[in-house]
Amino acid sequence: MDPSTLQQLLQGISNVTWQSVVMIAIGGLLIFLAVAREYEPLLLLPIGAGAILTNLPLSPLIGADGMLTALYDMGVANELFPLLIFIGIGALTDFGPLLENPKMVLLGAAGQFGIFLTLILALMMGFTRNEAASIGIIGAIDGPTSIYVSGILAPHLLGPITVAAYSYMALVPLIMPPVMRLLTTKKERAIKMPYTQRTISQRTRILFPIIVTIGVGTLVPFATPLIGMLMLGNLMRESKVVERLTQASSNELANVVTLFLGLAIGSTMKGEDFLKVGTLAILGLGLLAFVLDTATGVLFGKAMCLASGGKFNPLIGAAGISAFPMAARVVQKEASREDFSNFILMHAMGANAAGQVASVVAGGVLLALMGAG
Amino acid sequence: MRRYTVRVNETDHVMDVEELAADTFTVHLSDGRLVDVVLTDHQDLAQAVIAPQVEVGHPRAPAPTAGSVPGLATPAGPGPSAREAHAAPPPAETVHPARPARAATRSAAGARTVTAPMPGVILSVAVAAGATVQRGQTLMVLEAMKMKNDLKAQREGTVSQVFVSDGDQVKHGDLLLEFQG
Questions:
Q1: Is B152 on the interface with A (CB under 8 A)?
Q2: Residue B138 sits in the same domain as residue B99
């Protein structure tokens, strides 16, 4: 037999590199986390599968006509997928608790400080401005926003940033409580807050997404795509006249796009690009951004506690991030751990819904700061 | 509008309570006076601290009748200004209208009822009428904002009545369960 024939038949094996082996293991780890731990399985499973498929030797899924590359070009490179997902998120989000308690907007803003602190730190560590901004946005704990911002500013970092954003989102119940406990006293955590159920009229609920879109879009034009899609989904939900579209965007559309998005992000995790010291730094900085967000949120909650004469439970500050509704649930769990009769879930939900909007605005502000466009 | 008839020192007083908002009430006293009441805190706990802000139309006039409304205490006689917040002992059989209760009043006999701490759906009810429960025991599970919340007993006692069943939608403050005595 001609030796070149043998070489051709065995070219798969001969093209195995140590990087591809490590990346396949990482893909396996992501799938394990998705299956065994149920950490954001809807995203981590496709990302893990994408990473494995990408790193198989000479994978035909990557390249000019490769399926994964086609998915990437179709929806990640041009930012289509994260925006489509935002319609679904908007259709699922109930802004009622925020409308009942509008002062929670302040906490949504406070929960974004970590982004900017991390940005400064990343700059000092030698990342470029665009890279630093993309790393900071991990602190929003908002997958689609992270993908959107880093897709514009630093597409080469999409893989690690997305993996970090979604992994930490899954780890909200593990990462937040220690920070919250460290910064509050037992007495503060036990503060009870009266809840008054206000009836929010349907007119208010319908006007809210329209006004927010026009307001935010005018102030922060870079945030228009994200806020516009988020609020479109919410408008459909609250209008109650396009039930089918609401259902489709929060189920079918979101599911299909999530699959495509996960695979496409997985395809960016090519061993040679992913296995760098920089990736570890990104994962570390992303975690720091998240911790700082939680910390600034709680500290702002403490300020509100002081301002209100001890009537505000500072734990709620930690809910001012985007991870909806997990962050609010963690806040409720922490409060009831201190006193089982303490229910601050509705307040925390208000802050959490504000965080959802605020992280989108923060993404737009970052893009504006970096002069993207 | 709800009409309460309360007996203080063998005298019946009638008052009408008009709910303007979840935490704002106007109380019409039988002598024709109107009292604006703002409820700043409301918990059905053994350690309930209820501190309504009471604004009386005639600040100088004593208002002994108001003191007997559960959760609404005005001082009898001169002394603290009408705007000052006071705590009333939680609903109890005997009320002492002349005692200006201060905010720290705590009573273990208070929480006879359990109300919904937030709007949601009752997923399951763990106890039935007649059941004896310990403090901290789960009475029912309330799902709010897609989160399951255990509603636990604030006190030990015997359940006299359960007002909700699985799948019921409840609003904030709805009566869920009542203890004996």
A1: yes
A2: no
CB contact under 8 A, A194 and B171: no
CB contact under 8 A, B149 and A194: no
A254 touches chain B (CB under 8 A): no
Using a CB-CB distance cutoff of 8 angstroms, which residues of chain A are in contact with residue B52? none
Instruction: For A18-75, write each residue's pLDDT tens digit.
Output: 999 999 999 999 999 999 988 888 889 999 999 999 999 999 999 889 999 999 999 9
One domain, residues B159 and B73: no
How far apart are alpha carbons A346 and B60 in whole angstroms? 40
Please indicate, yes or no, whether residues B117 and B102 belong to a single structural domain of this protein: no
Residues B96 and B21 occupy one common structural domain:
yes
Residue B159 is part of which domain span? Answer: 113-179
For residue B108, list chain A residues with Cβ-Cβ distance below 8 A. none
Q: Helix/strand/coil (H, E, C) string of B28-81?
A: EECCCCEEEEEECCCCCCCCCCECEEEEECCCCCCCCCHHHECCECCCCCCCCC
Cis peptide before A155 (omega within 30 of 0): no
pTM for the structure as a whole: 0.74
Cβ–Cβ gap B23/A329 under 8 Å: no
B95 with B129, same domain: the answer is no
Taking the CA of residue B23 and the nearest CA in chain A, the distance in Å comes to 7
- Residue B79 in this model has a pLDDT that exceeds 60: no
Taking a C-beta distance cutoff of 8 angstroms, is the pair A222, A368 a contact? yes
CATH code: domain of residue B159: 2.40.50.100
Give yes or no: residues B12 and B86 share one domain. yes
